[in-house]
Amino acid sequence: MEAFEAVIGLEVHVQLATRAKVFARVAQGFGAPPNTLTDPVVMGLPGALPVINGEAVRQAVRAGLVFKSTIPEVCLWDRKNYFYPDSPKNYQITQYASPVCVGGEVEIELPGPSRNAMGEHRVVRLTRAHLEEDVGKLTHGAGDSLVDYNRAGTPLLEIVSEPDLRSAEEALAFLQALRMLLTAAGVSTCDMEKGQMRCDANVSVRPRGSDVLNSRAEMKNLNSITGVRNAIDYEIRRQSKVYARGGTVVQETRRWDAAAGRTTSMRGKEEAHDYRYFPDPDLLPVRFPRDELARLEADLPERVFDKQRRYQETLGLPYTVTSVLCFDHELAAFFEAALEAYPANAKGIANYVANEFQRERAAAAGEGLLPMAGVKMRPAHVAELVRLVDEGVVTKQNAKTVFVECFAGGRAPSELVEALGLKHEPADTGELEAACREVMAANPVPAAQFREGNAKAINAYMGPLMKATKGKADPRAAMEILARLASEAE
What we know:
39% of the residues lie in helices and 19% in strands. The chain is α+β, with helices and mostly antiparallel strands. It folds into 3 domains: 4-292, no CATH class; 302-393; 429-488, Arc Repressor Mutant, subunit A (Orthogonal Bundle). The strands form 4 sheets. Strands 1, 5, 6, 7, 10, 11, 12, 13 and 14 form a 9-stranded mixed sheet that branches. It has a 3-stranded antiparallel sheet with strand order 4-3-15, with no helix packed on it. Helix 7 (319-325) packs across helix 9, helix 10 runs antiparallel to helix 11 and helix 13 (429-442) crosses helix 16. The longest helix has 20 residues, at 225-244.
């Protein structure tokens, strides 16, 4: 299908992190018994009038600032009319003519030549982001359908991209970048398993090199990263085959059938006039003060890729480490707190946080990672342990044991070094040389390889030597003695 290229635009629906729903006082949340998070406003009962949740507007504006969108001074509310059972009012309060965020961009990273190599970075343009209310959730059985209105009325930010994406991999990079930006800013937790982030994908194909936009298919409510990738890949192949046979692609809405691994037609694609938009008569325009806008902008976190570039350029950290630290805002905050406590060794702290710390979180969870709220180790503990290694109080080998114990129980590294008897007390040169001779006598092969020009061969002695000295051998002194003894041997 190399003769064709894909043109992809995404509409991403993100539930905003607020305590209450967007036009009602009832709480929003996940996991409550069905139809318990409702009230007359959510259900659209006669005489019930909506009132805007100011925090929802602030969260939407915060997202727009992260995207470098233009924030109009005034935004308006519209009614989008449709008749589905998941919408109790038979209309949705949304923004059509005047959204809260106009334009913007999202920087994405495309896959590199390997997992450890930085990929190409580029910008995907946004058309808009508008605030609206979510709908309920339908559950379809064999002979009936049930509806839960708990989700109805939850503040929803719909983020619409320009058709700048050209593959499923680029679409995934966009969603991942979007999720990192929004979670770091505290706008949303973006948990797709809980429906807090859902995606509609608009896909069309055209002859490679053409600038024509052909008819598109919209895949609705893709609620997993895997679903987005597979649905887009399938749709690109399907449309390419239709054009290759001389056929015509119909503009329509399709659904992704994960079990069958294919998309199927749902209905003809709706246009704006099908929804009969008109200004909502119950809600006043929202005027967002410019001083409040400036305050929110000043409070924004550093953008993910800006942080990664700073770590690499200023702190000298490698991509393999920054790609772990920066893509998890809680982990990055942990690292920065540790670095503030001991700024003398950024690389040492970064390596512990990106490697040992993450390894222990995975081991503690069994599946996934232990939530940061459940971690007993503090940033100051990591800083202290790196300092103890730098000062020669504990060897790197024994520091690993201290790290594991500190993570498990939250005791300070200095206490653990004393309690476990791991304080480094350099052995006298005679004792260390005797230990070196002993491990070399047990295995003369590395010494012979060293004499033949393989300088790294004597590294094979370090493990047995550390075991023999219970981790107390000074690595630098040991390497010097091993090299001397290997050179002197016959």
